[in-house]
Design a protein that fits this description.
Radius of gyration: 20 Å
Number of helices: 12
Bound molecules: D-xylulose, manganese (II) ion
CATH class of the largest domain: Alpha Beta
Distance between the termini: 21 Å
Helix content: 40-55%
CATH superfamily of the largest domain: Divalent-metal-dependent TIM barrel enzymes
Strand order of the largest sheet: 3-2-1-10-9-8-6-4
Low-confidence stretches: none
Shape: globular
CATH topology of the largest domain: TIM Barrel
């Protein structure tokens, strides 16, 4: 690969999985998180995405001093492997208290659990020297509309964002929208919703978005336009590049594996905006195929990174003068043919 690149790549340890899905258990032997750190650099990655309990497993039973001690151990492991923690996200969908949502649960004690857990997540992030908190609002939504007061729910999410900004004056919050799964209808389904929350918050400069390609596609939207919207407001904290084959469960397929042109346009929009030049990562959130043999299975990550770099080469070799001529002439038929031939390597 000859392309010079200034991009840095990240993934979360959950991306190296044992292959369990809702219909079957693990198909590969368990591979502990600590051992995954040694794999990052050789695969071409330097950023680690975390859930709070990826850093401190069993954290609900820990006191603040224990949380800090465990997180500090992980900080050392990362440093020893030349790795940077990109973000920490509170896992607000596993505990019994989050069955009906977290910040928007109808139960006051469950909402309190969610807030306590969020503070612990911020403490863990700070112990790792990481300032970004990702909010994937997994269960903030409903299966039936009448179950919750949606207006109140949006107010509660905003109150939580403000409380987080107040709890730690240095963190940034990156909201990762997703329209469905596990809920039927999520309250923050698109980047537009996330950015509205940002501007409504007490410090919008610290509230941004993280756009996952598959999540945008599940909302029926084009990921590159979602990214462009965030970039136009200087609010793209990070991305989760992957792919999605139609409106079904969240597939987290290899980047570009389902739709190469959609992938091309994401890379084009990021590259044209200078994304990454302030240290932003190209984050991946990709599931290995359950059918893949071996342990640990990592080809989906190195392959998606390679595909990104190949597509980047395509973006960088577009004849922009020609594109401008086609735009000026409003000849989008010719523009489409040019782009398709360029992608296929046809002269
Ligand atoms: C869920 C998803 C999460 C977030 C982090 O669909 O993408 O893994 O990226 O919580
Ligand atoms: Mn994601």
């Amino acid at each position: 690969m000859s392309t010079p690149t200034n991009y840095r790549f990240s993934f979360g340890p959950w991306n190296i999985s044992e292959g369990a899905d809702p219909f079957g258990t693990e198909v590969r032997p368990v591979f502990p998180h600590e051992e995954k750190f040694a794999l990052y650099r050789p695969l071409g990655f330097e950023g680690v995405q975390f859930h709070d309990d990826d850093v401190v497993p069993g954290m609900d039973g820990f006191n603040p001093a224990q949380l800090t001690e465990k997180a500090t151990e992980v900080k050392t492991m990362l440093a020893n492997n030349g790795l940077t923690p990109e973000f920490v996200a509170p896992r607000l969908w596993f505990a019994e208290q989050t069955t009906d949502g977290a910040y928007t649960s109808n139960s006051a004690s469950d909402r309190q659990y969610a807030w306590d857990r969020t503070k612990k997540c911020i403490d863990i992030a700070r112990a790792l020297d990481c300032k970004a908190i990702v909010l994937w609002l997994s269960r903030e939504g409903t299966y039936i509309r009448e179950a919750k007061d949606a207006r109140l729910a949006y107010q509660r999410i905003l109150e939580t964002v403000n409380a987080m900004l107040d709890y730690d004056k240095e963190i940034e919050i990156w909201i990762e929208p997703k329209p469905n799964e596990p809920t039927d209808q999520a309250y923050v389904p698109t980047i537009g919703h996330a950015i509205a929350l940002s501007f409504a918050s007490s410090d919008h400069t610290r509230v941004k978005g993280l756009i996952e390609s598959a999540h945008a596609l599940l909302a029926g939207l084009d990921p590159s336009d979602e990214m462009a919207f965030a970039l136009a407001h200087d609010k793209l904290g990070s991305v989760h590049l992957n792919d999605q084959n139609g409106l079904k469960y969240d597939q987290d397929k290899n980047f570009g594996g389902a739709n190469l042109r959609v992938a091309f346009n994401q890379v084009r929009v990021l590259e044209e905006a200078g994304y990454g030049q302030r240290g932003e990562f190209i984050g991946l959130d990709i599931k290995a195929m359950r059918t893949q043999r071996g342990c640990p299975v990592t080809a989906h990550l190195s392959n998606s990174r390679e595909l990104f770099l190949n597509i980047l080469e395509k973006v960088r070799t577009v004849d922009n003068n020609l594109v401008q001529q086609f735009r000026d002439a409003r000849d989008y038929e010719a523009l489409e043919l040019y782009i398709m031939k360029h992608l296929m390597g046809v002269k």
